[in-house]
Amino acid sequence: MAAAIIDGKAVAADLRTTLAENVSKFVERTNVQPHLAALLVGEDPASAVYVRNKQRACDKAGIRSTLHRLPAEITEEGLLALIKQLNKDPTVHGILVQLPLPGHIKEQVVLDAVTPLKDVDCFHPENVGLMVQGRPRFLPCTPHGVQQLLLTSGTQVAGAHAVVLGRSEIVGKPMAMMLVQRGEAANATVTVCHSRTAGLAEITRQADIIVAAIGKPRFVTADMVKPGAVIIDVGINRVDDKLVGDVDYEPVAEVASAITPVPGGVGPMTIAMLLQNTLTAAQLSVGMTS
Ligand SMILES: NC(=O)c1ccc[n+]([C@@H]2O[C@H](COP(=O)([O-])OP(=O)(O)OC[C@H]3O[C@@H](n4cnc5c(N)ncnc54)[C@H](OP(=O)(O)O)[C@@H]3O)[C@@H](O)[C@H]2O)c1
Prior knowledge:
Elements: E1 4-5, H1 8-30, E2 35-41, H2 45-61, E3 64-70, H3 76-88, E4 94-97, H4 107-113, H5 125-132, H6 141-152, E5 161-165, H7 172-180, E6 189-193, H8 200-204, E7 209-212, E8 230-233, E9 237-239, E10 242-244, H9 249-255, E11 258-259, H10 266-285
Parallel strand pairs: 1-11, 2-3, 2-4, 5-6, 5-7, 7-8, 8-11
Antiparallel strand pairs: 9-10
The site of NADP nicotinamide-adenine-dinucleotide phosphate (NAP) has 25 residues, from helix 10.
């Protein structure tokens, strides 16, 4: 295997240690404990695991977390009423609505209802707008985690051709926008691909950096990768009870210069960035800007 492994688990652990120190300093200074409220609707086992992991990480960082478990049959109005209550609760700094929501609930309506100051996932249009304009209040967790991995791995992003596979609101679109900004781990020339892209492999073969976020197991194969490219695999797919990414890991690692594994790559970074945003939200609540 030629590629260096970008160890997201280790990078996230370092970030979480620093974050726990910053949380502790913040609590000492303000007597306010950062507090994340998580909403879990229904019984989806994967969602329950994600929420549990986020709560555990909060505990370790000194961030309080509360879980609101709601039945799958809850109405949209019922969910909105709870969000309204949490928006007003001064002891709650971050609100996380675990996706997906049951089909009868409109996700956009629910996500828009979270007050922008507690929108630690950075899904609210106001926060997306601020991010696009290059003056973020929060940064979206998964793309921010990717950027941190590019930074800590010493990847040359400025001037590089970054190809983002996927254009979802959660990963692909904000990822592309963040890579094209002025700033650290940015200033890239970005191409965004999606299911209607023609000649995808020709495009990926021109990439210095590929960020794969399409949700298709082992989709990115070695012949789609330029020798020496840096590969960031956001995908999490369950195949035969095993987690695999969107990248065909072993063969691609023979061609790439650096690659993130699945699991242990981007996933742990997403959680670390969520914790960071919760601290930021608590800081904002007491009038601190950073
Ligand atoms: N590691 C983490 O923390 C983390 C966080 C979030 C998501 N994920 C994982 O990342 C993956 C993507 O998540 P998501 O929420 O962004 O997914 P999504 O909302 O389903 O979006 C998938 C995107 O991939 C595109 N796509 C699908 N098939 C394609 C193909 N054959 N060629 C090119 N593009 C294609 C889609 O194009 P269209 O727009 O044209 O349909 C869409 O834009 C999933 O595996 C998810 O589990 C991981």
